[in-house]
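User: Structure please.
Assistant: Input sequence and predicted structure:
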Amino acid sequence: MAANRTLAICEIRETADRLSTMSGILIVDDNANIRRLLRSFVETNTVFEVCGEAENGPEGFEKAEELRPDLILLDLTLPGMLGTEAAPILKRLLPQVKIVLFTMHEDGVNRALASRFGGVDLVIGKADSILNLREHLIALLAPVDSTPGATEVRKNIKIN
């Protein structure tokens, strides 16, 4: 019994260590207040780090190439370019990156639009509870591990 508990604790620590060594999250949103809110939330409520910010598509491409984030929080309505136009370009630059379209307009029409443009892994409405964002980040960024029980550890891990 004690050996099983020790093994479970070690698995949780190893998973948390892997999560904390990720390069981070890039926030692409034209609203500086939203960027500040997202940065503060991520850095306060998760083990992930915000590695950079951008306020439009071209700046987002530059930062993505430079910083190589694991995940990009991408606004739908950016100046000069929609997030749905930027997402496939970002995926071509970094095929492994996860992209979360973070929008005020979360509804069926925009979900369909996002999936048609490709590159978007998830659409989250800014009106949703910010706590939902935390759970989605953990689900998207948790490392895939084939050791027995690792999937269960990822499902049950609570960070902060």
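The first helix runs from residue 2 to 20.
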